[in-house]
């Protein structure tokens, strides 16, 4: 056993984690064995990162736990069989869609594979939409670099994609002045390193900027470059613009295996046929290590870190202007910032998230205790917030590596594989920068076997449709005169018109499920949670697509809303 | 359509229709603004009978009841617009109001001397009662399930669990059973049914649908569609008891866990909302704290019967038509929140005078109680009740004989 491996082994023993087999694999370290508790497995993986390896491959099993199979689409057909795209992107989250759109600037045949029925179904629709300033990242990390660069790109990107973005700043708050001063040194160091604007705020300044802050916060720092947007609107807009520029999306498509020859992926097997791409981009989120494994290039491991978030009624939106969280000293150096409260781009308030390690990659269930804890922890920050303001809550899963670092690189051992993996927070803020980097790497890789030329027809601007809530009385008058459907309100809570829903159904990436419509134009996001509008939205989808009501799903697959028609004359009993 | 009305009624359900007709009968020019495509409000989908016993002395279905109200409105001098949504409302300098209305015809502005808010209520969602677990298809509020069955003609379930014994929940238990679905049971976290006793008998007992009291849903299980529901008995503090957890395979969870008055428009006018009713504070004329703005029906407080909804609309419409700005001399109607869930109206305006129709709900299920109303030192009303239930609204009427300076509703034992 090499010395380093031996040392790791004995360190694990000392920390009370015995029986772990450690082996070096390429430049990475692989852990194997079985443990009785998940936290020990996480701890073992974390310890292994301290030994200077490229990555930790943590294969330690949890005793008595069998990882559930990946939730796969039921469809089996040959829709994409025999296709030979230049680039295949695995994963239609914000990373996959950002890359797709970025790569559509080149004259390439690009195919995005997404196992769900729509884009943005996992972490990309299950986060707070914050465009972080970058201050939470250690210096000299990819996370920090991509975050700061990505943040700066959003103003232009959102203009091109025609989605709302607000650079409203954030506060990191403290309940103790001394700790605040101490943290100031750390922030100043990072801010200087990355070029992040910051300002110290005493209690008076904080209250001046956020009058509803309770006296919990005594001092803090303001980071004006922080922003907010709708993460699912962004992902959809990226995908739509990519489609407008020639990218093809194959939804309900799961990669099941890969075939390699001479250190290169030759074919990718899916439930909808076998394809033969020139390059493969791994943007598979919490499953990115599984995809790497299919190509025998698993040099990192995803440990799913779950978080739960509460949404408050829009009525409370005006009570805060930005994003803010109270930070304790131990959180300063940790991988997660402990959540907080923030106003969303749609004027709701988000509370949370929390962060906890657990073994499931796609369990989005919420738990009473966690939601309660989130409310207890953060509601006290703002005078006017009440638990009864909660309209809904949700969970998301962060795709974290043990290194707590992004993996953005061309594979060292598989020539035509490029990883955009381990993209956890601040993945959303970093997405445009990651896409640029991955695009550069991929174009370089492709240039080894083909000539890559720019797409002369590339149009960065997504098709414009009216957003009625942003229009003045006279502007609304004008669009309704042109199309009366914009005058008919379907969702009473969010005031969404029939016309906007029809636009979503007929967009470049058609939305044909109730949740897909909800992510694009918000009916059902409000306080009635779709009680009134879900049937109306169902009817509009039917009318626009020719589907019948029992075919309409909540979110694809077998999530049909309705069974058959009611029996004529009632059922006989 | 006119540019200015005496009374604008927001909502064309039973409250709004009655308000419009009574205002028109007082000689006012009236406009009803309805956001849905058709008038009638939620009655349109309530195809069961039992409506109109008080108002028409007949058992009508919801659509029949609505039709009568609509016919009467059409016979009065009332303007109405449908598929029209009030996007904004503000006070104007002459004391009236200006509404911005969005419809397929475009945007328009209408002015009115007075407003009657008759927007009804909405259902509490699964999230508002903190249902946890997965979030698949198949979780519906009872009203949504009712829309699917009665309006669209599609079955939202084949086998379901119903949480909450509100009236719509019990009515849907019967309705779904009649349409061939299996209702595994109705579960109620409290130890008494939330809806009317007659619905327990006619909707559940008659169809052998079990009602499980002191039991709630603790978890939803299912990836794409509901696959099962976990229920558990609760203790006195409504906390689930671990060893009573039980998993019920089913395809839907239907919720009837309460209704909330819709007052988003009212809040744009800074109308004060009573925490107990979730509706506006009003005086005996149904006028809110904002002079010229009236509230009625389920937007004011959630009623048991459409008949009461119409009655309050009728009164609100009449008062709105006759509204004259004046000094208000308001007396708060005091009550002990240990005895009463709420009391409506919450105020008596001495300047307006006249009769006081008081609606109340008891806080708990209690027997052999007496309810008193005191004006200053005089007990002007005492009424015996064999039983009082939170689920059954009670109404009393009094006309003060002298100037009132304080008013208190209280409860005591009798025997």
With helices defined by DSSP (H or I, 4 residues minimum), what is the helix count of chain A? Answer: 15
CATH superfamily of the largest domain in chain B: FAD/NAD(P)-binding domain
Beta-strand portion of chain A reads 15-25%
- Range of strand content of chain B: 35-45%
- In terms of per-residue confidence, which ranges of chain A show pLDDT below 50 for 5 or more consecutive residues? none
**What is the subunit arrangement here?**
heterodimer
Measured by residues with Cβ under 8 Å of the partner chain's Cβ, the largest interface is:
A-B, 58 and 48 residues
Q: Domains counted in the coordinates of chain B: how many?
A: 3
First CA to last CA of chain B: what distance? 60 Å
Number of DSSP strands of chain B? Answer: 27
Number of strands of chain A: 28
CATH superfamily of the domain at 87-123 and 232-300 and 404-447 in chain A: FAD/NAD(P)-binding domain
């Amino acid at each position: 056993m090499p010395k380093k491996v031996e040392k790791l082994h004995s360190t694990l023993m000392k920390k009370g984690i015995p029986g772990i087999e450690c082996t070096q694999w390429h430049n990475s370290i692989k852990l194997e064995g079985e443990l009785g508790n998940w936290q020990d497995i996480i701890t073992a993986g974390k310890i292994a990162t301290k030994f200077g390896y490229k990555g930790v491959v943590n294969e330690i099993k949890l005793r008595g736990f069998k990882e559930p199979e990946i939730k796969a689409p039921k469809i089996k057909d040959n829709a994409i069989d025999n296709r030979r795209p230049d680039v295949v992107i695995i994963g239609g989250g914000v990373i996959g869609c950002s890359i797709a759109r970025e790569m559509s600037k080149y004259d390439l045949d690009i195919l995005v594979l997404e196992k769900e029925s729509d884009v943005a179904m996992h972490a990309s629709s299950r986060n707070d939409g914050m465009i972080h300033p970058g201050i939470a990242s250690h210096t000299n990390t990819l996370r920090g670099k991509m975050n700061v660069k990505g943040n700066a790109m959003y103003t232009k990107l959102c203009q091109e994609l025609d989605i709302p973005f607000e650079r409203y700043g954030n506060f990191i708050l403290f309940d103790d002045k001394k700790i605040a001063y101490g943290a100031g040194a750390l922030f100043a160091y990072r801010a200087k390193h990355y070029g992040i604007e910051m300002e110290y705020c005493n209690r008076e300044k904080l209250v001046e900027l956020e009058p509803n802050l309770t006296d919990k916060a005594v001092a803090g720092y303001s980071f004006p470059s922080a922003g907010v947007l709708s993460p699912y609107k962004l992902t959809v807009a990226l995908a739509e613009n990519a489609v407008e520029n020639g990218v093809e999306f194959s939804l309900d498509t799961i990669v099941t295996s890969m075939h390699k020859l001479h250190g290169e992926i030759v074919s990718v097997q899916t439930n909808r046929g076998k394809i033969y791409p020139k390059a493969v981009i791994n943007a598979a989120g919490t499953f990115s290590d599984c995809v790497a494994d299919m190509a025998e290039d698993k040099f990192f491991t995803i440990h799913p870190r779950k978080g739960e978030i509460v949404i408050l009624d829009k009525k409370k939106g005006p009570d805060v202007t930005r994003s803010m969280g109270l930070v304790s000293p131990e959180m300063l150096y940790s991988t997660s910032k402990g959540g907080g409260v923030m106003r969303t781009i749609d004027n709701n308030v988000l509370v949370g998230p929390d962060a906890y390690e657990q073994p499931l990659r796609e369990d989005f269930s919420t738990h009473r205790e966690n939601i309660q804890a989130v409310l207890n922890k953060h509601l006290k920050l703002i005078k006017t917030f009440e638990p009864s303001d909660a309209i809904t809550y949700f969970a998301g899963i962060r795709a974290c590596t043990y290194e707590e670092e992004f993996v953005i690189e061309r594979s060292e051992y598989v020539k035509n594989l490029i990883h955009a993996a381990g993209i956890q927070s601040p993945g959303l803020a970093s997405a445009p920068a990651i896409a640029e980097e991955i695009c550069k790497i991929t174009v370089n890789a492709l240039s080894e076997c083909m000539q890559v030329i720019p797409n002369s027809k590339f149009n960065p601007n997504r098709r414009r449709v009216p957003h009625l809530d942003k229009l003045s009385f006279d502007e609304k008058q004008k669009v309704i005169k042109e199309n009366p459907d914009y005058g008919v309100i379907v969702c009473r809570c969010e005031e969404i018109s029939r016309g906007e829903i029809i636009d979503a159904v007929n967009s470049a990436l058609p939305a044909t499920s109730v949740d897909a419509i909800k992510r694009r134009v918000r009916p059902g996001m409000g306080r009635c949670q779709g009680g009134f509008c879900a049937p109306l939205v169902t009817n509009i989808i039917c009318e626009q697509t020719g589907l019948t009501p029992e075919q309409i799903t909540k979110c694809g697959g077998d999530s049909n809303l309705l069974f058959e028609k009611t029996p004529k004359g009632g059922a006989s009993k | 359509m006119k540019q200015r009305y005496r009374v604008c009624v927001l909502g064309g359900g039973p409250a709004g229709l009655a308000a419009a007709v009574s205002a028109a009968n007082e000689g006012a020019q009236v406009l009803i603004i309805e956001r849905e495509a058709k008038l009638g409000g939620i009655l349109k989908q309530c195809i069961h009978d039992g409506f109109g016993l008080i108002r028409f002395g007949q058992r009508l279905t919801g659509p029949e009841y609505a039709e009568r109200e609509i016919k009467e409105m059409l016979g009065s001098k009332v303007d109405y617009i449908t598929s029209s949504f009030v996007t904004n409302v503000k006070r104007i300098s002459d004391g009236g109001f200006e509404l911005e209305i969005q419809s397929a015809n475009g945007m328009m502005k209408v002015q009115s001397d007075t407003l009657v808010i008759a927007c009804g209520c909405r259902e509490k969602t699964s999230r508002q009662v903190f249902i946890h677990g997965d979030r698949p298809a198949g979780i519906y509020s009872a009203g949504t399930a009712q829309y699917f069955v009665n309006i669209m003609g599609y079955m939202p379930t084949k086998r379901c669990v119903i949480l909450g014994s509100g009236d719509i929940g019990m009515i849907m238990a019967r309705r779904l059973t009649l349409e061939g679905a299996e209702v595994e049971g109705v579960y109620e976290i409290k130890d008494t049914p939330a809806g009317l006793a007659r619905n327990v008998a006619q909707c559940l007992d008659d169809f052998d649908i079990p009602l499980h009291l002191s039991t709630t849903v603790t978890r939803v299980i299912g990836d794409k569609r509901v696959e099962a529901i976990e229920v558990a008995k609760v203790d006195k503090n409504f906390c689930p008891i671990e060893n009573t957890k039980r998993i019920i395979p089913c395809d839907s969870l239907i919720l009837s866990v309460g209704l909330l008055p819709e007052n988003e428009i009212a809040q744009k006018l800074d109308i004060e909302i009573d925490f107990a009713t979730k509706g506006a504070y009003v005086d005996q004329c149904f006028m809110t704290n904002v002079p010229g703005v009236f509230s009625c029906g389920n937007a004011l407080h959630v009623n048991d019967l459409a008949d009461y909804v119409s009655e309050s609309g009728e009164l609100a419409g009449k008062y709105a038509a006759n509204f004259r700005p004046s000094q208000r001399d308001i007396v708060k109607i005091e009550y002990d929140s240990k005895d009463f869930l709420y009391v409506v109206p919450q105020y008596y305006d001495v300047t307006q005078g006249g009769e006081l129709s008081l609606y109340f709900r008891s806080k708990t299920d209690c027997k052999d109680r007496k309810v008193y109303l005191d004006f200053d030192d005089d007990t002007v009303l005492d009424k015996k009740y064999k039983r009082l239930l939170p689920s059954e609204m009670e109404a009393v009427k009094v006309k003060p004989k002298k100037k009132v300076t304080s008013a208190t509703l209280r409860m005591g034992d009798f025997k």
